[in-house]
Design a protein that fits this description.
76% of the residues lie in helices and 4% in strands. By secondary structure, it is mainly α. It has one domain: Skp domain (Protein Binding, DinI Protein, Chain A, 2-Layer Sandwich). Strands 1-2 form a two-stranded parallel sheet.
Length: 171
C-alpha cells in the first residue's frame, strides 16, 4: 500500500515538474477516503446491522456485571454476619462469575472486531469501486487519497463518490 502511495505521489510530482502546459493534459483529483467511508449510507447501515447483531450479547454482559456487583456488595455488607462456609461459597461464586464474565467480554470483543472487519472490508471494496467508477466517468487520469499534504477543492471528488454511494444505497 505504501509503495502504491509512493508511486502515485512520484507520478503526480513528475507530471507537475514537466511543466504547466504538459500537466494540463492530465486530470488529477483527490478523494477523502475517510470522509467518504464514514458519511456513506452503507457505513451507517453496517453500524446498525452490527448494533442489532450484538446488542443482545451486550445487554447480557451488562446484566452479568450488575449481578456480580450485587454479589460483591452482599459479601461486603453481610460477610461479617455470615457463617464461614457461606462466605467461602459466596467468594467462590463471585470468583467463578468474574472469570466467566471476563471470558465472555473477551469473546464478545473478538467477535465484534471480527464482524466489524468483515463489514468494513466489504464497504472499503465498494468505496474503491465507486472511486474508480467516478474516475472513469469524469475522465480523471489520477486520483490520490491519504498522505496528501494539500489539495484544492477544485480537484476534490469526495462528494461525487458519496453521491454515487448514496445512489447505490445499502446492499
Amino acid at each position: 500500500m505504501n509503495s502504491i502511495r509512493f508511486l502515485l505521489i512520484t507520478l503526480t510530482l513528475a507530471i507537475l515538474a514537466a511543466g504547466s502546459a504538459y500537466a494540463e493534459e492530465y486530470r488529477i483529483a483527490f478523494v477523502n477516503a475517510t470522509k467518504v467511508f464514514e458519511e456513506s449510507p452503507q457505513y451507517k447501515t453496517a453500524r446498525e446491522r452490527l448494533q442489532t447483531e450484538f446488542s443482545r450479547r451486550e445487554k447480557d454482559l451488562l446484566a452479568s456485571q450488575k449481578q456480580l456487583k450485587q454479589l460483591e456488595e452482599k459479601l461486603q455488607r453481610d460477610g461479617s454476619v455470615m457463617s464461614e462456609s457461606e462466605v467461602k461459597r459466596l467468594e467462590r461464586d463471585i470468583l467463578s462469575r468474574s472469570r466467566k464474565l471476563k471470558n465472555a467480554q473477551t469473546e464478545f470483543r473478538e467477535d465484534l472486531n471480527l464482524r466489524q472487519n468483515e463489514e468494513f472490508k466489504k464497504l472499503r471494496q465498494q468505496v474503491r469501486e465507486v472511486i474508480q467508477e467516478v474516475g472513469k466517468s469524469e475522465n480523471i487520469d489520477l486520483i490520490v487519497s491519504d498522505g496528501v499534504v494539500y489539495f484544492s477543492k477544485k480537484i476534490d471528488i469526495s462528494d461525487k463518490v458519496l453521491e454515487k454511494l448514496r445512489e447505490r444505497k445499502a446492499e
